[in-house]
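hi! just following up on the protien thing from before. the input was this:
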Amino acid sequence: MRFLHTSDWHLGRAFHRVGLLDAQRAFIDHLIATVRDKQADALLVSGDIYDRAVPPLPAVELFDETLHRLAGLGIPVIMISGNHDSPRRLGVGAGLLERSNIHLRTDPESCGEPVLLHDAHGGIAVYPLPYLEPALVRERLGAERPGHTEVLAAAMRRVRRDLAARPAGTRSVVLAHAFVTGGEESDSERDITAGGAASVPRTLFDGVDYVALGHLHGAQALTERIRYSGSPLAYSFSETGHRKSLWLIGLGPGGRIEQDERLDCPVPRPLARLRGTLDHLLTDPALEECREHWVEATLTDPGRPPDPMARLGERFPHLLSLVFEPRRAAGTPAGPRYGDRLRDRTDQQIAGDFLRHVRGGREPDPGEGALLAAALEGARTQEQQR
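and the predicted 3d structure came back as:
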């Protein structure tokens, strides 16, 4: 059976204030055509359909149009909600959609209820696990602690319990939206650390024949059987080096991976990250190839030159981001970039840094730390409940 695996559409998202709805519509056209051209037997969509819990109306209209087109493909379509989606909003009408062979799962308690498929080699149980916000689903899943590993482990116990009751030789596929240890991040994924440690171990999926992951925006294979499809479009300049694609996976008898094909997605406009003095960026002939790219320019002039955005915009009409990193005098140590200072720090650590900064270096005490944690967890929970 051939599965086409995609995720992280983020319908409604912009790229540095540039609307991407036309590019997202072009991706949907490409997706539909790929299903037909490659004769895929099922489509897997591993979460983050929308970019936010309350998406803009044009994004909702595009998704509605997409659902109608997916229903016309004549193959099972299996979708889950991601951490950007509102499970309640996205899940409206899921029961009716199932009659059209679109299996949209947003309820954590359905984790042990597979979509059952069949091919010439027997049955395949596909388990769609929606994004599991620890604070919201711990009690419902019977997890020991409100952490990402614990709630996903509880969901996988339901999966294994159901799979054990299936006929011998039943193959298994899991859809999940999570940060799995070993995955390579970019700047455009929303932080999920408020619910405990962000990453979960690959061992949670031991014994599953294929794991179709969503959340990280770079396509990557953690193992032959555990893969991220990545987002179909770039959503930050940190994704400049990404190859946006879909996975076409052929699952044979005994759960063997018999086909492993990476299919490129259409690119609305290439990205370029340029660095140097203003004069260099304006005159270097090698940069002419970036004229039609979306551009992030980092200026290294010792002082800020006049009107850099307008001047650069004459050469690079699609300049979207301007960063200043002045070249320092010899012997002067360079401080870390703002983005580097934030890298690998949780929301609570960043909030604590701010308190320390405005209070002259005084650290948050344990009580304040607990309040910060509760506030961040409350904000995340409220977003998921919208």
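The chain has a mean pLDDT of 92.
The radius of gyration is 23 Å.
cheers
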